[in-house]
Amino acid sequence: MTKKKHNFSEKEKYHWWALHPVMGILNVTPDSFSDGGEFTSFQSAVLHAQKMIQDGVDIIDVGGQSTRPGYIELPASAEKLRVVPVVEAIRRMSDIPISVDTYFPEVADAALEAGANIINDVRGLDTPGMAEVIAKHKAKVIIMHSRPRDCSKSLEAELQQFYKEKVVECERLGIGSEDICFDPGVGWKGVEEDLQIIHDPNRYRLEGFPMMVGISRKRVMGYLLDEPDPKLRDLGSIAASTILLRHGVDIVRVHNTKGMVDALNMIKVFDDYKPLSGKWETLKDKLHK
Questions:
Q1: Rg from Cα positions in the chain
Q2: How many Cα atoms sit within 13 Å of 178 on the Cβ side?
Q3: Distances in Å between the alpha carbon of 143 and those of 44, 82, 158, 244?
């Protein structure tokens, strides 16, 4: 049974982003750091997308290129062959928002033509032509900061400068502020700065704009959990992602969609619960309405 979509909180309901808090990761790559090779076939990728939809995920993020440390870049033409058929198949079976994790304008253009709604750009529109593709399709965009750190600036100052630069660029091209979400780039800094973002995410956001944070299975989670195996970091990742949402982050990007959706649904149930009959069954009934 497909679960009812949750509304995590009442905050900022005018933001489309805040109403879609759980982004599920679908890596169609053989070399991703935690799930490489699991969904490389077309059939396995589509089946996993179906499972995430059944879990109640809000957005599916399709990626055809690993950006793990030390990765070897795949040409845009090969990435497009991996990603576009999966996007087309998901769109045929569902109207769920689809994001594509790419920094290639050619891949973004083809994916948006195929039915994607969002480009999740780990290079933050720094690739020439990417912003123009977003504007052409009137698409939504997640702009990540992944530039090498400028050690003459604090992390907060560097992120604020980056965000404001990108807002100006988007405005120039006609990309609406409502279509922009920023990602501070946990995993692209050192562990200490990753921890700073996780501890106080609102300090590292641009006021008035949505924020996505992806910590699922990442190195910082391995450090906190003392767990070398990325696949065994899911429970800690769900707990930390839940806290991030409670602390003002709008979207979390996760591998274990069922666990994440269940966690948020339970929080909503207990937040909204008002004792009527004194029976716990009322909570169960509310969850499955």
A1: 19
A2: 7
A3: 29, 22, 14, 18
> Which pLDDT belongs to residue 30?
74
Catalytic-residue membership of 246: no
Catalytic residue among 218, 219, 233, 258: 218
Answer yes or no: are the C-beta atoms of 182 and 142 closer than 8 Å: yes
Residues 6+ apart with CB under 8 A from 92: none
d(CA 240, CA 246): 10
Is residue 106 packed enough to be buried (19+ CB in 10 Å), middle (13-18) or exposed (0-12)? Answer: middle
- Mean pLDDT of residues grouped by 10 in the chain (289 residues)? 40 69 92 50 91 97 82 89 96 97 98 98 98 98 97 96 98 96 95 96 96 96 95 96 95 97 90 60 56
Instruction: Please report the domains of the chain, with CATH numbers, ordered by start residue.
Output: 17-256 (3.20.20.20)
Decide if 235 contacts 30 (C-beta within 8 A): no
Active site residue 253: yes
> In sequence order, which residues have a C-beta less than 8 Å from that of residue 14 and are 6 or more positions away?
none
- Single-letter residue type at 49: A
Residue 6's pLDDT is 40
pLDDT at 36: 46
The Cα–Cα gap between 275 and 252 comes to: 31
C-alpha to C-alpha distance for 51 and 288, rounded to whole angstroms: 18
Q: Which of 80, 82, 205, 253 is catalytic?
A: 253
Sign of CA dihedral 88, 90, 91, 93: positive
